[in-house]
Amino acid sequence: MLRQVLHRGLRTCFSRLGHFIASHPVFFASAPVLISILLGASFSRYQVEESVEHLLAPQHSLAKIERNLVNSLFPVNRSKHRLYSDLQTPGRYGRVIVTSFQKANMLDQHHTDLILKLHAAVTKIQVPRPGFNYTFAHICILNNDKTCIVDDIVHVLEELKNARATNRTNFAITYPITHLKDGRAVQ
């Protein structure tokens, strides 16, 4: 008995719904198209999130809190006189790490000359593009004098090479700050 009542009620409701849809075909043909267009238009404001940290780390994760604490306690010198590669954050910069096969002293004359030759080779790199040749000077970070900022270790190695060339024995590399001949202190 209950089954017959439910069957008759559902049949009547669906019959009326079918009749209503059949009597208003324009609305039921155009409404899904309009809804699809409206929902699809929301993708025009869609932006791809490229930050892996934002995608994978929770907003209030312990790592982010600790990084903010370290950055507040030990601020980084972000002036134009420092290389951005000294920062511990991701970015578009490169760094070359030079090691010795025999675990030799990297400050001896042979290795110092090799490192300075490598530095000279990197600064002479050219990338030919249609209509223009890009050089190291086009992509480096410029200081106030409009010259490329060079890593402090290159200055120390050049000073060490000059000291050896003039038989100066009073040049010492100290940690964490080395004082160069021109009065600058490098870290």
TrEMBL record:
<keyword id="KW-0812">Transmembrane</keyword>
<feature type="transmembrane region" description="Helical">
    <location>
        <begin position="21"/>
        <end position="43"/>
    </location>
</feature>
<dbReference type="GO" id="GO:0005886">
    <property type="term" value="C:plasma membrane"/>
</dbReference>
<dbReference type="GO" id="GO:0045202">
    <property type="term" value="C:synapse"/>
</dbReference>
<dbReference type="GO" id="GO:0050890">
    <property type="term" value="P:cognition"/>
</dbReference>
<dbReference type="InterPro" id="IPR051697">
    <property type="entry name" value="Patched_domain-protein"/>
</dbReference>
<dbReference type="GO" id="GO:0007268">
    <property type="term" value="P:chemical synaptic transmission"/>
</dbReference>
<keyword id="KW-0472">Membrane</keyword>
<protein>
    <submittedName>
        <fullName>Patched domain containing 1</fullName>
    </submittedName>
</protein>
<keyword id="KW-1133">Transmembrane helix</keyword>
